[in-house]
């Protein structure tokens, strides 16, 4: 990813109010973020553990989403594989992230959800810069293919959230 400033991060969130964006807790100071190793920037709000954020390049721009993170009881857990990077996790290292849809659909309470690495460090897992707790099944994809897959999956999720907005505008 390209380096971003704190102001740029706050200004790119698509599914929050301006006030929420100003109040959110940013990750470590932007100078400390390993931008070159990231396909997207994801972090948990250090002051509100149920909140998380994801910022990713999309087409020619950068889009951020506010997410809420929950850990379903094991019996209701539908997957222990991150849907973004395909890392297999123990129950403590995967969470269900849901995003309020952008625009009117979101104001009506509609969300989109996905299972992902609790720490949202998918970019580091696929580059072997962070090791998951569980041994992983053999991947048939090469490293560049894993990067491409991660970017596609994240873009698809973000597009789903944004389309909630354009879809309802068309219907109105
Ligand atoms: Zn992941």
TrEMBL record:
Residues 8-161 form the Elongation factor G-binding protein C-terminal treble-clef zinc-finger domain. Pfam families: FBP_C. It comes from the Bacteria. This is Elongation factor G-binding protein C-terminal treble-clef zinc-finger domain-containing protein. It comes from Catellatospora coxensis.
